[in-house]
Task: inverse folding
């Protein structure tokens, strides 16, 4: 430390000891922003003073594109939002359109949609788990997660030909009937994954370093969660019971028995635990449905050109990340007048600043991971 | 020239005598140095290539995949292909970077392990430097590397690099203490800092077995601290790719990046070599009590093979926890050193003194 005497003979150390905050642009190209999120960090050494998300880098104006597409085409655009829970996004649009048409959906469709939704949720959480480990520096978990996710994507491929952006839902039902192997392969997967999920716990959950890195870090209170509109496992870890599957059941969720995972601690570790617990619950749901898929049509009869009656329609679903809302205004044309998506990632992202204040850079990465952000879902 | 695979002393002396016969004394020294230099450069290049390949394969098997398989048999030529690629890449220097320091840093990082490797006793009579302060020399020169890392971070004109370099500085300076102290614990028993003396003192059993409990504790601390000192996972905060992209070597490309990469692996080898020498008897074969037959078989295996086998086992151990554990945070890492490892180490040192004074070691 330097000391200098000023004109009055007093020591003036301020000039030499004063530290300065500095900015770091984390992203758009950064390994742990999972896509192209840009965070403007105000740092004091390693400590984070402010996080300012700058979004819009991959904005594709999906909502505007919907206004010139037919309702069948709107469905496939939602694949490109939250690509990890694409089936659930599709389902949201289809449910909204069906609500507008007041269409009676065959029971079989409801069951198929629910099973595939839950498989999607598991696949999404598997990928999240792998990436979470990678963000914390344990790269091995990434490949463990992918290993088990592969089985689900194989099932999807057999069902509808696509592995990631499935576009399996159509207004009125699903595009094809399930494959004859579907039941067997799903059951195989469940029995396989029931053995593998404890392995996930062995690798990360009980690890001392992992617990130190996540426990008590990134605290989000219930009040903050509600006021930021945080939903999904991230909010339920803070004690905010917001599971749409439970509150406003859609598809076949009213026919199954499952627990809503709610914890109260609200730190990174709890968000992690909530997602692991959700995987168990999803498997539980699938087990109840898989043997009881009723016979019948896989698609209700719809007209080739769907025109919704004039009015406003809203449908909420629970994706792997939280609540997805689809809002459609129709003016009796073949394409919607206006479509608005309330995507979970967008609301979840903006809680980051509150959570990250005073933490270290490494904690921010862990927090972002436990919020499970998918950037195309935020930018749309 | 009598070449003996079990004892290189005569061979080395005869080579130097032969050089002295045909050349003037000054020229003989210079030629000897040049020969050693070339051998070591080749050795390091080979070491780097093979360690990168081994690390990839080990990591792949931990992660239930195959790793490189396409180039050469089982992907053995993959690292060579990578090195060729790195050599032909454009060496970029960022705008406003301090060009001189930026280029210098890569060489400093490379010099440190080159100096340290000279003191490693590979087999009986097969070492370049055999100081009476061998251990001290190795710990001293291996910490030159941190200067390179700090320079790299400082001169890159990149905030990620700077953060990485600062982290690395704090980390290496802290963990140096633990490495030194854990080695000192064994020095109490050997009574010598000379590496060849340390090896010879283990002819009737390795220190990890003979040194009672304190030796085992010292070894565990040594492995943790030296992993941290070499910036490897789970202590790879300086290049934590998920936080600060690539840390201090973010802005390096081409052959200069390869220097950073290579130095990491040579450092890894030195850690394993020093660990082997101090704790696992260096090139000494494994002897079990009075089982003469077993001991004779062990003696039959050449010391060079013993040395590299032990080094490989330690390398595997270090790779094992790199590919298993998540990364620590900077404050946790410093806490681990200053609050846990250092006090434990000092206590262990005292314990070893008591053990040594009372003759409780075997």
Result:
């Amino acid at each position: 430390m330097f000391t200098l005497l000023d004109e009055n003979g007093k020591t003036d150390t301020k000039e030499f000891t004063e530290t300065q905050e500095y900015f770091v642009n984390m992203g758009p190209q950064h390994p742990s922003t999972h896509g192209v999120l840009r965070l403007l960090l105000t740092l004091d050494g390693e400590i984070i003073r402010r996080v300012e998300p700058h979004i819009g880098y991959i904005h594709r104006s999906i909502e505007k594109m919907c206004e010139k597409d037919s309702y069948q085409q709107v469905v496939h655009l939602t694949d490109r939002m939250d690509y990890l829970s694409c089936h659930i996004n599709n389902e949201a649009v289809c449910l909204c359109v069906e609500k507008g048409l007041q269409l009676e959906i065959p029971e079989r469709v409801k069951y198929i949609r629910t099973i595939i939704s839950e498989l999607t949720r598991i696949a999404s959480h598997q990928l999240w788990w792998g990436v979470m480990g990678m963000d914390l520096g344990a790269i091995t978990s990434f490949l463990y997660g992918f290993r088990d996710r592969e089985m689900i994507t194989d099932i999807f491929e057999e069902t509808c030909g696509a592995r990631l952006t499935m576009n399996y839902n159509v207004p009125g039902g699903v595009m094809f009937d399930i494959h004859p192997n579907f039941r067997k392969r799903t059951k195989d997967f469940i029995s396989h994954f029931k053995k593998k999920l404890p392995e996930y716990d062995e690798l990360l959950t009980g690890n001392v370093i992992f617990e130190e890195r996540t426990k008590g870090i990134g605290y989000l209170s219930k009040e903050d969660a509600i006021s930021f509109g945080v939903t999904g496992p991230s909010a339920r870890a803070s004690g905010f019971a917001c599971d749409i599957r439970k509150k406003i059941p859609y598809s076949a969720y009213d026919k199954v028995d499952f627990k809503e995972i709610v914890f109260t601690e609200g730190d990174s570790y709890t968000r992690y635990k909530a997602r692991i617990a959700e995987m168990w619950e999803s498997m539980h749901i699938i087990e109840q449905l898989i043997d009881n898929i009723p016979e019948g049509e896989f698609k209700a009869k719809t007209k080739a050109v769907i025109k919704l009656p004039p009015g406003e329609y809203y449908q909420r679903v629970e994706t792997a990340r939280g609540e997805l809302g689809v809002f459609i205004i129709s003016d009796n044309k073949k394409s919607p007048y206006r479509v608005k998506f309330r995507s979970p990632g967008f609301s979840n992202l903006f809680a980051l600043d509150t959570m990250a204040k005073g933490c270290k850079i490494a904690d921010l990465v862990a927090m972002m991971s436990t919020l499970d952000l998918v950037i195309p879902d935020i930018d749309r | 020239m009598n070449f003996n695979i079990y004892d290189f002393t005569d061979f080395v002396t005869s080579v130097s005598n032969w050089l002295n016969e045909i050349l003037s004394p000054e020229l003989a020294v210079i030629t000897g140095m040049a020969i050693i230099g070339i051998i070591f450069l080749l050795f390091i290049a080979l070491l780097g290539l093979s360690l990168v390949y081994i690390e990839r394969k080990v990591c792949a098997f931990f992660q239930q995949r195959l790793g490189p398989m396409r180039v050469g048999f089982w992907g053995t030529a993959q690292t060579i292909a990578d090195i060729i690629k790195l050599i032909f890449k454009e060496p970029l220097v960022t705008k406003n970077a301090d060009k001189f320091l930026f280029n210098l840093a890569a060489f400093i990082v490379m010099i440190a392990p080159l100096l340290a490797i000279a003191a490693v006793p590979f087999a009986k009579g097969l070492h370049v430097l055999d100081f009476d302060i061998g251990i001290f020399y190795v710990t001293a020169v291996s910490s030159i590397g941190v200067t390179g890392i700090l320079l790299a971070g400082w001169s890159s004109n990149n905030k990620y690099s700077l953060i990485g370099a600062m982290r690395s500085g704090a980390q290496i300076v802290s963990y140096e203490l633990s490495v030194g102290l854990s080695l000192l614990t064994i020095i109490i028993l050997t009574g010598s800092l000379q590496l060849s003396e340390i090896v010879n003192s283990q002819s009737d059993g390795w220190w990890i077995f003979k040194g009672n409990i304190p030796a085992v504790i010292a070894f565990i601390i040594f492995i943790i601290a030296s992993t941290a000192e070499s910036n490897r996972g789970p202590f790879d905060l300086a290049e934590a790719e998920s936080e600060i992209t690539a840390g201090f070597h973010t802005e390096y490309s081409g052959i200069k990046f390869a220097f950073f990469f290579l130095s990491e692996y040579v450092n890894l080898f030195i850690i394993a070599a020093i660990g082997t020498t101090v704790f696992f008897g260096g090139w000494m074969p494994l002897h079990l009590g009075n089982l003469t037959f077993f001991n004779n078989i062990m003696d039959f295996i050449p010391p060079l093979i013993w040395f590299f086998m032990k080094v490989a086992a330690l390398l595997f151990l270090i790779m094992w926890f790199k590919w298993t554990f998540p990364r620590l945070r900077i404050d946790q890492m410093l806490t681990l050193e200053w609050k846990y490892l250092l006090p434990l180490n000092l206590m262990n040192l005292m314990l070893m003194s008591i053990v040594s004074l009372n003759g409780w070691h075997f």
User: Anything to note?
Assistant: Chain B has a mean pLDDT of 84.
